[in-house]
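Response to reviewer comment R2.3. The reviewers asked that we include at least one raw input/output pair. We reproduce the pair for Gx transporter family protein here without editing.
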Amino acid sequence: MTHWHSDSRQLSAGSHDHQLARLAACGIVLALLDAALPSPLPGIKPGLANIVTLYALATLGWHAAVWVSLLRIAGAGLLLGSLFTPGFWLSLAGGGGALLLLAAAQLLPARCFSVVSRSLLAAGGHLAGQLLLARGWLIPHDGVWLLLPPLLTAATVTGLANGLFTLKLLESAKDET
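Raw output as returned:
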């Protein structure tokens, strides 16, 4: 945990802060990779950075997942030159939607959700957040809903793939300890 030293007035970072920073940095790198990949349709991306959020949720808990997600969105926005552009707000809305569904899942017994099912929830929440913002602000026309079938298909496929990758990552980390 971050804390102040009363005698020197310096802010020091603890091991938890270092873990969050490392995960956020990994998320930023994955977000940059995502941005570089060609897209067959606007909005269809693998969402690789979500792997880091899921990993943070599974290993460090809910608050860490929120911090990693928000730091990743802000950091990628800065590095891509898209901070406070419509793309940034879409990313934030998607991240917020994913976090809302993950928060709801946290309220239910853990045995109800695997890493893969949480990933699918997050992918659906991400899509919902982005589409609602796009419909309400960027494309105020009901035609935006015509994108739902291909986007939902892509969210399901990428959510499943990211969840399986996160599961393997967690198993690998568990084997190392």
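Strands lie at 3-5, 10-12. The first strand starts at residue 3 and ends at 5. Further pairs are available on request from the corresponding author.
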